[in-house]
Amino acid sequence: MPELRYLILADGDFGPMTSKTANSLIRYRADRVVAVLDRSQAGRTAQEVLGFGGGIPVVGSMREGLALGPTAVLIGIAPMGGRLPAEWRGWLLEALDAGCELWSGLHTFLADDPALAEAARRTGRAIHDLRRPPANIPVASGLAKQVDPFVVLTVGTDCNVGKMTAQLQLTGGLNARGLRTRFVATGQTGIMIEGWGTAVDAVVADFLAGAAEQLVLQGAKDADVVLVEGQGSINHPGYSGVTLGLLHGSCPDALILCHQPTREFIGDYREASWLRLPPLGEYVRLYEQIGSAVHPTRVIGICLNTYDLSEADARAAGERAAAETGLPATDPVRFDPAPLLDAIVHARDAYRHARAPRGSRAAAPAARG
Amino acid sequence: MPELRYLILADGDFGPMTSKTANSLIRYRADRVVAVLDRSQAGRTAQEVLGFGGGIPVVGSMREGLALGPTAVLIGIAPMGGRLPAEWRGWLLEALDAGCELWSGLHTFLADDPALAEAARRTGRAIHDLRRPPANIPVASGLAKQVDPFVVLTVGTDCNVGKMTAQLQLTGGLNARGLRTRFVATGQTGIMIEGWGTAVDAVVADFLAGAAEQLVLQGAKDADVVLVEGQGSINHPGYSGVTLGLLHGSCPDALILCHQPTREFIGDYREASWLRLPPLGEYVRLYEQIGSAVHPTRVIGICLNTYDLSEADARAAGERAAAETGLPATDPVRFDPAPLLDAIVHARDAYRHARAPRGSRAAAPAARG
């Protein structure tokens, strides 16, 4: 089966901080992206808009996009609430009629739309709703505590600060060091990139932690380290429940706190700004206390997203974050990720040492602080 | 329209701590309950099983129950995960054929069961799935911060410790004192009793806080005090996400911590016991810190469920909880609820004083500590 060639829909919102799904696809699977549809930026390239992505063109209509021969149309933005903008239905029908599959991470399932479902039947094309949860998720019961690999979860000071991107970078780095490291996708974009996972924010609330638990159990097979993709933020008025369910369901042994230094207020870029971000130390304290209420965990590093800072300012932000928290801090996408990779390796060694049988532990010097 | 007469299904699980929905119906709407079906306790009365409920009989078969002339069969237990025990389908078909409506708070919607749906169509009887969430719930955006009434949320040291029962008692007490007090139901049992509400644990996780926000906005109309029914516990491995989404979505001005003094481990009675309850003071700290990350709040009282203690032990437990936390503590169902009612009234006065315009505030002595 030939690999899919994607036309990404990101109308009105293609940009470094606004089209999270599109950008991740372009960063990690650029060879499969034929174009981005955004009427407001037609004629530019991904490189010009994002700073990466090379010559991938931005087109101004579905017709132009389809002329480039995609085999799938992928929804590349995650609008507030995750629902389908009404105007897009016509474009998606056009895409099905042109023989494309549809890929979507919206909360509104495309396959539940009668017109789209009928067109998919008629054209024999598949609709992939990545946020549709699996059936029969159990209530979590703490099983993730018991897995053998070292489990690391990214947590954030807000939504959309780079939690998934950080994990993907670190996964590559740890595998390069010889640690079998598995990225566990908990959101639609991660699922598109990894090919498996569950969008935990689309699960009925009572089963959210259970979904996270199942993902960790699956990711733990044949792995030394499991890196779980975080969601939301513990103080986000809309999404904190998702954050905590994921934290308690996945039972991470360590946390990496993700932050965008220029972010001042909680909430997506398009919301009113009414909740000021507390200092990083306050986040460390909150996450460690609430996380450890179910399974002992601690923050072992700060992962910065400095895309909107000069290199000098980005380095200064890293030093400030490290001084503030006493933890290694860097932007692992922009700079050398070694400080965070080292932090994970050291925390894992200490954890394994602490868990080792008494005899073997007595033979080695104490490690866990 | 005549009032419904309920036959309650609680097979194998009718008891003081196991059949939460059945018990609340019997406590608050006993006149509408014709019988309880539990084969393991047939021949007893509700009074004998629960210690309240008078002569409501426990029957051993659907046939016996239907002979007593119910107009509705209501699912009276909330099994782990909320799904329908397979054996019950036959009984529910029998009930529909006998002309009964069905009322259910299970996560598995009865109306989605083809056989039950078909029988309901054939018999013209309604199926009420109380956990089916309303359509188009928004993502929460902090609107509940702005309502005029004083908002109180019950929080718990575990599931099933009496959060709803406490609120219902306090609602009555506050109304008797002349404060227009609205109980806001967030679970299926509360909805059955109040006639409106949303089962927030059945909402897709991203919209859970939004559902809580909508409920508070609705409950705030023409009310002086809004008492929001709490769910789960902040350190429950399965349900903590629901607890935090409700806490951040409802923006309570004050919290009442509910606790069963004999409970040692987190988790429903039927689960393995692997997480020991921390001290009350630790819960107070966790709830205040994590709640105040979105809207300032504090715990103002401890509400005990002492059903399984002697009167002397129950009073001693109240004194111990008060000494441990420095807060008023009582079992408002068993003893005089005045300490908790006073706590709410005083906290509301202090809150209104603090929010009053500067001129009027300067005229009175400072109140909020």
Give a written overview of the molecule.
2 copies of one chain form a homodimer. The first copy, chain A, is an alpha/beta fold and 369 residues long. In chain A, helix 11 (311-325) links the parallel strand 11 (298-304) and strand 12 (329-330). In chain A, helix 1 runs parallel beside helix 7 (188-194), helix 4 packs parallel to helix 5 (114-123) and helix 8 crosses helix 9. In chain A, 37% of the residues lie in helices and 14% in strands. The first copy, chain A, contains 13 helices and 12 strands. Residues 359-369 of chain A have low confidence and may be disordered. In chain A, the strands form 2 sheets. Chain A has a 6-stranded parallel beta sheet with strand order 3-2-1-4-5-6, sandwiched between helices. Chain A folds into 2 domains: 6-129, Rossmann fold (3-Layer(aba) Sandwich); 143-363, P-loop containing nucleotide triphosphate hydrolases (Rossmann fold). Chain A is globular, with a radius of gyration of 21 Å. Chain A starts with 5 loop residues before the first strand and ends in a 6-residue tail after the last helix. The interface between A and B is large, with 46 and 46 residues.
